[in-house]
Design goal:
mainly beta, Jelly Rolls, 4 domains, five-stranded mixed β-sheet, elongated, secreted
Length: 403
């Protein structure tokens, strides 16, 4: 272009109107999970560039349909273990309302084989019990099925009930599984009625007195389980007064609590067991009829504090669970728990009639209710305003209220 005269350089203003407001995304929190799928919360604001400066604007000025999510999925690394589930079972009823269940398994991501559930304990788990409906029953056409309408929540409404264990597990006992006191033996019943009365008064029961003696000799069942419960702040001590267990035949005595686990057979007489918490389960496994142990238990103030001030203990057969409400200025970094213990022959059902975890309860992993089945250490997590029904496999459960 050298032979052609070069025109003068010119700059012209083409548009004086400012750029329209736009959405701005700023990372606010790290990933909620150290492995596997989690959620990261990000700050979304509406801004506009005016005279070279970024100015914050009201959100309605930005296009609502284009607003980014405030919570986004994130993965830091693959977890070594994860929960897996079987298919849902058929509805428990042929008509009306029932439940469906499914089995959960803790899998190793390397071998894809089941491992001990303790490895998955800290990972949130989906529900394993859900409601189902098989349609109205013939005699109830045009009306609601039983349980289809929830009753209003009142101060006297029990949220936890102790359900009797499935009857087929106890057919060999030939006794009633009601939560009430055992029936009195009729006069003239003989030795057989006396032995049955002794079994009814001991095996499968929960003892709540401060002291007592438990005679587990001569029971008719191979396995005889009793539970001892005391208020929080106390711990239980058990002395074995007598033992006729045959160790060579495989007879054994098991003690289990939240912070201890012991088994034994030899040298049991006059040995001392300390629970270190306020509950203790004693299970006797015998092979030969007539054998067993006699225990004496007592309670005392715990030497070490094993609970938090906001924790509470409930014993069967029914009770109400209300999580402690803390004001924002009183916020503490605590996970409040409710411990539930019922008689070993019973099972626990927890029905949430009302749950409100706040506006963010459906979108974050920080606000949730965790229910743990102590016998299997399996946990289930509930979010948001879910009205759930949970059932235990054992006689102990724990509930944690997070955030």
């Amino acid at each position: 272009c050298q032979p052609v005269p070069k025109p003068e350089s010119r700059v012209e203003i083409c548009d004086l109107s400012p750029c329209p407001p736009r959405w701005k995304v700023t990372p606010a929190t790290p990933c909620s999970s150290s492995c596997g799928l989690g959620l990261a919360v990000q700050l979304v604001t509406c801004v506009q560039i005016l005279h070279g400066q970024e100015v914050l604007q009201e959100e309605h000025l930005c296009p609502v349909a284009e607003k980014p999510l405030t919570s986004v999925p994130c993965v830091i690394r693959t977890c070594s273990y994860e929960w897996s589930f079987s298919e849902w079972s058929q509805c428990s009823t042929s008509c009306g309302n029932g439940i469906q269940t499914r089995q959960d398994f803790c899998l190793s991501s390397l071998t894809h084989k089941p491992v001990n559930p303790l490895f998955c304990r800290r990972f949130p788990k989906a529900v394993v019990v859900r409601g189902c409906s098989a349609g109205p029953c013939p005699e109830q056409e045009g009306t609601l099925s039983p349980g289809a309408e929830l009753q209003p929540v009142t101060a006297a409404t029990p949220l936890t009930t102790a359900a009797a264990a499935p009857e087929h597990r106890h057919k060999e006992l030939d006794v009633s599984l009601s939560a009430g006191p055992p029936e009195q033996t009729k006069p003239g019943g003989g030795e057989e009625d006396t032995a049955k009365k002794s079994f009814l008064c001991v095996c499968g029961n929960l003892f709540l007195n401060a002291t007592g003696i438990i005679n587990m000799t001569g029971v008719e069942s191979r396995d005889c389980t009793v539970a001892i419960g005391r208020p929080l702040r106390e711990e239980i001590s058990v002395t074995i007064l007598e033992s006729s267990l045959n160790c060579s035949a495989g007879e054994v005595l098991l003690f289990s609590g939240r912070m201890m686990w012991r088994t034994g057979c030899r040298k049991l007489p006059l040995s001392l067991i300390n629970s270190r918490t306020n509950t203790l389960i004693v299970k006797q496994r015998v092979v030969l009829p007539g054998n067993g142990v006699i225990l004496q238990y007592s309670s005392r103030t715990a030497a070490k504090k094993y609970y938090q001030d906001c924790d509470q203990q409930l014993f069967g057969p029914q009770g109400e669970i209300v999580n402690p409400v803390q004001l924002p200025e009183e916020r503490q970094e605590l996970v409040c728990r409710t411990f539930i213990t019922v008689a070993p022959r019973q099972r626990i059902s927890i029905r949430a009639l009302h749950a409100d975890l706040g506006p963010e309860g459906n979108h974050t992993h920080f606000n949730y209710i965790l229910v743990r089945d102590v016998s299997t250490m399996k946990t289930v997590v509930f979010h948001g305003k879910q009205q759930f029904l949970w059932q235990s496999t054992g006689s102990q459960a724990e509930i944690e209220f997070h955030e």
